[in-house]
Automatic annotation (TrEMBL):
Keywords: Membrane, Signal, Transmembrane, Transmembrane helix. Pfam families: Abhydrolase_2 (PF02230). The chain crosses the membrane at residues 12-32. The keyword Transmembrane helix applies. The keyword Signal applies. This is Esterase. Residues 87-270 form the Phospholipase/carboxylesterase/thioesterase domain. It comes from the Bacteria.
């Protein structure tokens, strides 16, 4: 009898210890979840939408840095995929203000918009959002460490983006005839540069408030482009886009050009968030 009582007390003690351990861990997890959500919100991103993106990381070494470091990206997949169906891929290049290692800041504007359920119903797609490391730009020199095809070769950051596109296209149900690229500011420059480096990869592009080399447009003048710039931009002069558009037209191109009156550098808020015209146009484009 005494033995049974002892066993019951011991079992109760074990259960109480386990419940205490469980409660403490739940409190810790809740605290970390709260802190993470708070951090994501501080970057101007909805946490629930950020969690819809898969995390991708690639190691690179960079001249002037003693140790390799990761270049991080996020990948959004269509919410519901049809069996055997293929979906377009949008490559999104952010601006200077979203550089870093947090793998969150680059989700502002277009990425988090397309992560919303109603947007995925309207525009089901994959979206790749790489994050440029601090003190770099999309054309900074890098050495890709963990890439089988380019390991050890001197490249620029955009070549890593290209490699990511190839890898994602091989692993996911992506319609390779509907790969698009867009970006603003530094990402606008990156978009123009990416078109010059890989003109046959994309079905269409939309560079916003950026600029490039007008001599390079002969490589991609055949592509459908939707170019936007605010005429009051004091960060990157509107003449940068005007030069590219003029060069395209001189080479037989027919770009859609939107010069927004009295709009400063932030033309992407209008293009990405306040109108569907660009996206409606973009998703209609397809390579032959």
């Amino acid at each position: 009898m005494k033995l049974d009582v002892f066993r019951q007390r011991k079992m109760k003690s074990v259960i109480l210890i386990f419940l205490g351990w469980l409660i403490v861990n739940l409190i810790v997890l809740a605290f970390f979840d709260y802190q993470e959500r708070k951090f994501i919100l501080s970057k101007g991103v909805d946490p629930d939408r950020a969690y819809k993106f898969k995390i991708i990381s690639r190691q690179v070494s960079v001249p002037g840095y003693s140790n390799p470091f990761p270049v991080k990206s996020r990948l959004l997949c269509p919410t519901e995929r049809r069996h055997g169906g293929e979906y377009p891929l949008i490559v999104f290049l952010h601006g200077v203000g979203e550089r870093g290692f947090d793998n969150v800041a680059q989700l502002k504007s277009l990425p988090q918009r397309l992560a919303a359920e109603d947007e995925q119903e309207k525009y089901p797609c994959f979206l790749l959002a790489p994050q440029c490391p601090p003190k770099m730009n999309w054309s900074s020199e890098t050495v890709l460490i963990d890439s089988t095809s380019t390991a050890g070769k001197k490249t620029i950051l955009l070549d890593l983006v290209y490699q990511l596109i190839l890898d994602i296209s091989a692993k996911h149900s992506i319609d390779t005839k509907r790969i698009y690229i867009t970006g603003y500011s530094m990402g606008g420059h990156g978009t123009w540069s990416m078109l010059a480096r890989y003109p046959d990869l994309f079905a269409a592009a939309s560079p916003l408030c950026g600029g490039g080399d007008p001599k390079s447009v002969e490589k991609f003048s055949h592509l459908p482009l939707w170019v936007v710039h605010g005429d009051a931009d004091q960060v990157i002069p509107v003449t940068e886009s005007r030069k590219m558009v003029e060069a395209l037209r001189m080479n037989g191109g027919r770009p859609e050009y939107r010069e927004l009156p009295n709009v400063k550098h932030d033309c992407w808020s209008i293009t990405y968030n306040q109108t569907d015209k660009m996206l409606e146009w973009l998703f209609k484009q397809k390579t032959n």
